[in-house]
Write a structure and sequence with these properties.
Distance between the termini: 14 Å
Number of strands: 12
CATH class: Alpha Beta
CATH superfamily: Dihydrofolate Reductase, subunit A
Shape: globular
Strand content: 35-45%
Helix content: 10-25%
Order of helices and strands: EEEHEHEEHEHEEEEE
Largest sheet: 9 strands, mixed
């Protein structure tokens, strides 16, 4: 069985990025994401992959890049050009599939997701890309909210988990 899961970090206003970069790099969040996704499938857009520090796919995962650029290729990643092709490529995969961003990929794949791990930042950053506010979505409920902590870099954060309670798309 597959389970589609959003994984992201968001500020007070649900901002997730600015100029194709994360709003903040929090080592504890990076460790959390790494632990959750190792050995799993991660699905992202081309710009998200290119925003990685090395610009290369993450090791120990099946990196799937969803892009409309039919000429795009990169070693170590599976390239797909639409939702139908993505679903076909992963039809035999059993396990957790993490939706890794960016904004348009979250929007396209959110209807398939049943869970979301969101690292929340107490701070408000300048952002140009946002997630929908899960707290105000009727079909999602907060099932876990950790305590606020301060990262090594001085940013206040907490881990949260949301689950879909209604799914009209399946």
């Amino acid at each position: 069985m597959q389970e589609w899961i959003i994984i992201a970090s968001a500020d007070k206003n649900w901002g997730i990025g600015y100029k194709n970069r994360l709003l903040a790099r929090v080592p504890e969040d990076m460790k959390f994401v790494s632990e959750k996704t190792k050995g799993k499938v991660i699905v992202m857009g081309r710009k998200t992959l290119e925003s990685f520090p090395s610009g290369k796919p993450l090791p120990d995962r099946l990196n799937v890049v969803l892009t409309t650029d039919i000429n795009y290729s990169i070693e170590g990643a599976l390239i797909v050009h639409g939702i139908e092709e993505l679903m076909e490529a992963l039809t035999d995969y059993r396990g957790e599939i993490y939706v890794f961003g960016g904004g348009s990929v979250y929007t396209q794949l959110m209807p398939y997701c049943t869970r979301a791990y969101i690292t929340r930042f107490r701070h408000e950053f300048t952002a140009d890309t946002y997630l929908p506010g899960f707290d105000s979505l009727d079909e999602w409920e907060l099932v876990y909210s950790g305590e606020w902590k301060t990262s090594k870099t001085g940013i206040c954060y907490k881990f949260t988990e949301y689950k879909r309670i209604l799914n009209n798309n399946k």
